[in-house]
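Ticket #163: bound-state structure for nickel (II) ion.
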Amino acid sequence: MALRTIRIAGDPVLTRKCREVKEMTPRLKELIDDMFETMYESSGVGLAAPQVGILKRICVIDTTGENPLVLINPVITEREGEQTGDEGCLSLPGKAAQVTRPMKVVVEALDRDMNPVVLTGEELLARAMCHEIDHLDGHMYTEFAEGPVHDVTYEDEDEEEEE
Ligand code: NI
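RESOLUTION: The complex was predicted; output attached.
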């Protein structure tokens, strides 16, 4: 495993639409391992492949530190309720803004062995799923921000989840 360089907002790779994964390969498994390592190293709760420069529909999420999820070709099939709160992104370090997301989503995806899975996410996990899937279509949370994109102060940093 190896750390990958996280692309920062302004990098055109973050605005591109990613391609579907057709088959799993040793190289893609290595990418997934590297994405987890890079995400944990940066204290993030999610990371999408374009954030490390790979235009494929793959994201990794772990909102608890104990529930690593791989989402390949994910599609949101149900949305319920809403939540409004601060959201951050590893591609925009030290910043956050208010974004409204569904309180609950159902996602259909493939796991790292390309088996179909149906995942339900609520609260932070729902937010992370929406945020990461947006990355696969070239979207950053700042496009949906309801207030100013603000600096995260040092004291707040422990409470921020960066995706
Ligand atoms: Ni992000």
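RESOLUTION NOTES: DSSP finds two helices and eight strands in the chain.
TICKET STATUS: resolved
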